[in-house]
Amino acid sequence: MAKTRRGRKSPAVHPVMAAAIKLRPKLRQWRRHIHMYPEPSMEEQETAAYVVEQLREIGLHEMKTGVGETGVTCLVRGGKGRKTVALRADMDALEIEEQNDVEYASRKPGLMHACGHDAHTACLLGAGAILSGMAGKLPGNVKLVFQPGEEGSAGALKMIQDGCLQKPKVAAIAGLHLMHDLPSGDIGIRRGYRNAQTDEIDMTIHGVSAHAAAPHEGVDAIAVASQALIAVQQFLARHTDAVDRKLLTFGIIEGGTRPNILADAVRVRGTIRTIEPAGREAILTFLNKDLRKLVAAMGGKLTVRIEEGYPPLKNDDSVVDALEAAATDIVGEGRVVEVPVPGLGGEDFAYFGIEGGIPAAMSRLGTRDEKKGFTSPLHSSTFDCDDAKVLPVGAAHLAQTAIRMLRG
Q1: Going by C-beta distance under 8 Å and a sequence separation of 6 or more, which residues neighbour residue 4?
Q2: Alpha-carbon distance 368 to 184, whole Å?
Q3: How far apart are CA 207 and CA 303, in angstroms?
Q4: Are 356 and 173 a contacting pair, CB within 8 Å?
């Protein structure tokens, strides 16, 4: 036990956390380099090459590149035991123009690491360095999975189909994600559903064009579309279980050619987010059946196309046990936070459990620090974090989770 200036004993720093603290300069260097050179989904060639270069500097060499097109895997071979577990980080950026005035701001116009994937990748590199330093004592192997294309391209599924969970066969997988609503450096744990099913919806309301001065001679697709959008929200509010977590948000509406002509068609595009399967089925049934009838009653015609997105992420209890125990080891029980409700964001990490068929779970790593100004949400042009504080916690948490999974 170490002593404070007042003579009181303070808890000893966990050895894995101590190793991560020593790595702080490298963690920041890795994260900031990746932040400066963001790449969009499935175009992460430079990022993947940088990851490989850093893994080699760490002293790791059992790597595979081009997994799932641009992904990288690396095996940290332990000295004892045959069990293999995996840790995952995503590498892709978003099509956002960065507004942060920092020396490590994006140097690629229109691209930014606004979802924290640069930090995830740095944390996984850090975990690799920590585990490599104790490889002889590891009770098994740890596969590092650097994944492309999380932002809508299902990179996890591509890597699974390309064999990332095989040779050696992976028994379980864990990951983390930055989150702006948790205090900086705190770790959020949730059991059960963590993320929503994501579906894309593309609707067209067909009317009949006519002169604006004689609307009775046509069918105003804009007016019909307005009623249809109101009906959708009314259905959600009054005809689905109020306890279920779900939403339907429309982000694009297009229609019309001139101010004095009734629009003959309006296209509306949006996203459906659901947790409970019953809620999703109710929404799909309404869109494909009842909403068609409503539009037809107003003289129009509705076409609906729904593209199934990422499945819901349901955290596996056994991996959550490892995440929670590791978090307590690293930051202490007081900084481990129970996340009370699932988020409605999508996460293709879900494929590791569903398509990969192995136990999978993710934790959250807080970034919020109002005194230092780190309050922006994910996917915003000003998202950032105190990487000196956040990255060592993330690297240590991943490394210790792998150790806990191997012992489990």
Answers
A1: 10
A2: 5
A3: 12
A4: yes
Q: Note down pLDDT in tens along the chain; length 408 residues.
A: 444 444 555 568 999 999 999 999 999 999 999 999 999 999 999 999 999 999 999 999 999 999 999 999 999 999 888 999 999 999 999 999 999 999 999 999 999 999 999 999 999 999 999 999 999 999 999 999 999 999 999 999 999 999 999 999 999 999 999 999 999 999 999 999 999 999 999 999 999 999 999 999 999 999 999 999 999 999 999 999 998 899 999 999 999 999 999 999 999 999 999 999 999 999 999 999 999 999 999 999 999 999 999 999 999 999 999 999 999 999 999 999 999 999 999 999 999 999 999 999 999 999 999 999 999 999 999 999 999 999 999 999 999 999 999 998
Q: Hey, where are the domains in the chain?
A: 7-195+313-407, 197-308
Residue 157 CA to residue 161 CA, distance in Å, equals: 6
Tell the CATH topology of 7-195+313-407: Aminopeptidase (3.40.630)
Topology of domain 197-308 in CATH is: Alpha-Beta Plaits (3.30.70)
